[in-house]
Amino acid sequence: MSGPDPSHLAQAAAREPLGLYLHVPFCRDRCTYCSFVTTRDESLKAAVLARLERDVRLWGERLGRPRVDTLYLGGGTPSLLTAGELAALTGACREAFDLAPLEEATLEANPGTLDLAWLEAARGLGWDRVSFGVQALDDELLERLGRIHDARAGLEALAWARRAGFERVSADLMVGIPGQRLERVLQDARTLVAAGANHLSIYLLDLDKACPLRGQVESGKLTLPTEDETADVFEALQAELPRLGLQPYEISNYAAPGQQSRHNNRYWERRPYLGLGPSAASQLGDWRWTESGIIHAWIEDRGSAELQRLEPAEALAELPLLGLRLHRGVDWDQLLALGEARGLRPLVDGWEAQLAPFLQHGLLVRDGPVLRFTPRGMLLSNSVLQIFV
């Protein structure tokens, strides 16, 4: 397949502000459940940052210095960057892209890899939202997950973020960990919110890909909670988090008013984004691509990106596939009209027929033109969303 015409990408980037994602692939140690593209070899840091800054400038020029309204520094562990390295990368973004419309600048950070001075430096550079990979506040579970921090460090990081001037603070909370108890998950959620988190991302432990923790489960050394036990945890959180002031806005995400992740929302709303760094994904116009996940090859520009041009039916299917993850749901009348305009009305009618049983069984609800999951439907969403795959 031939690649996209650069002018086509530039036109797509000019239609509305982009989201810009930068992948920092370094970790001090590898978690036992991790299958992301990361490395512990920090001797590669200079080469990775040089390539990343070069790509920032290259894409800024290629797309005509497009507007960017959300910026996200993910990993890996971006908090392993020094304050100077973070400043250089931030400066490159400001030079190459028009950040005047910027509404949100998020950086991921791991407790145990930062201090108050680092967070103050990041805040001074304009980063206004921080997302901490806390996962749990039970030291035994954290050790099982291979995390490099303990519960005390997780709470200390939240306190430092507040002292550094971050008003938007998110924390990850993982469920489905071997040995995890429901009441402890609820206690952790309460403690994180009391410590200053105004956004929680609830992640189910995923062992679909090869990782050390999967090997321990398969060998019988550890036992995962049953599906019913995990569902009980999610249902309990669905009830508890609103009492703590955090409302659901996506299947796995809860936020205080005004604290939703604007960058992540753009993925579910299928809005354009540019991802730079090893394994980073981009979507502009009809095109989607993913950078090479082989770090050495990516550094030397030897790796090939996975390129895809979406067919009209695929692009349409992604609107309900992603949009139904949002608590507000999908305007089905609008989807029908879009299908009609694109000559795909029979496809939408077919989806409607397949969704009827889920409506009858209370997994979906129709509220005027809007179709959305019920709380119970959120727990079983994968079986519904398969329709659009």
Descriptive account of the structure:
It is a single chain. This protein has 389 residues and is an alpha/beta fold. The protein has two domains: 6-268, TIM Barrel, CATH 3.20.20.70; 312-389, Arc Repressor Mutant, subunit A, CATH 1.10.10.920. The protein is 43% helix and 19% strand. It contains 16 helices and 15 strands. It has helices spanning 6-15, 45-62, 83-96, 116-124, 139-145, 151-163, 182-194, 212-218, 227-243, 262-268, 295-299, 312-323, 332-341, 345-360, 375-379, 381-385; strands at residues 18-24, 68-75, 104-109, 129-135, 168-175, 199-204, 247-250, 253-255, 273-276, 281-284, 287-290, 306-309, 330-331, 364-367, 370-373. The strands form three sheets. The chain has a nine-stranded mixed β-sheet, with helices on both faces. Helix 2 links the parallel strand 1 and strand 2. Helix 13 (332-341) packs antiparallel against helix 14.
What does the overall shape look like? globular
Number of domains: 2
Strand content: 15-25%
CATH topology name of the largest domain: TIM Barrel
Question: Which percent bin holds the helix content?
Answer: 40-55%
CATH architecture of the largest domain: Alpha-Beta Barrel
pLDDT < 50 runs, ≥5 residues:
none
- Give the name of the CATH superfamily of the largest domain: Aldolase class I
| Main sheet strand line-up | 7-8-6-5-4-3-2-1-9
CATH class of the largest domain: Alpha Beta
**Beta-strand segment tally:** 15
Q: Determine the oligomeric state from the structure.
A: single chain
How would you classify the helix and strand content by structural class?
alpha/beta
Number of helical runs?
A: 16
Largest sheet, described in full?
A: 9 strands, mixed
